[in-house]
Specification:
By secondary structure, this protein is of the alpha+beta class. It is 27% helix and 20% strand. The mean pLDDT is 82.
């Protein structure tokens, strides 16, 4: 095997590897397998986890995204500006989860 044949085999190997990885990247990006989430910054995702903290007034807890998302409905239930409140029901072992503020049609 001479030097020209060796170089041509190496070049064809690199082309085939590049083509194979390109096909895999296209397949994974179309199936959303590579990203793991539809939107990486939506509430509850890896980049925007939920934060649970005690409410300053009363026996309740707030669940809200760590960062604001600034979508079309900023006061939708569970959004950054309208977190969920967890309260224990009186005389029961059950908990109630509801938005902090009224939503008026969301």
């Amino acid at each position: 095997m001479n030097k020209a044949e060796l170089i041509s085999r190496i070049v064809s190997l690199v082309k085939n590897l590049f083509l194979g990885f390109s096909i895999l990247i296209i397949i994974f990006s179309l199936t959303r397998f590579a990203w793991g989430y539809e939107d990486p910054v939506k509430p509850g995702s890896y980049l925007n986890p939920y934060v649970i903290k005690p409410s300053p007034f009363g026996d309740s807890w707030e669940i809200r995204p760590k960062y604001p998302t600034f979508n079309e409905k900023p006061f939708a239930p569970g959004s950054y500006f309208n977190p969920y409140i967890i309260k224990k029901r009186p005389f029961s072992n059950e908990y109630e989860i509801k938005p902090k503020y009224p939503t008026f049609g969301y």
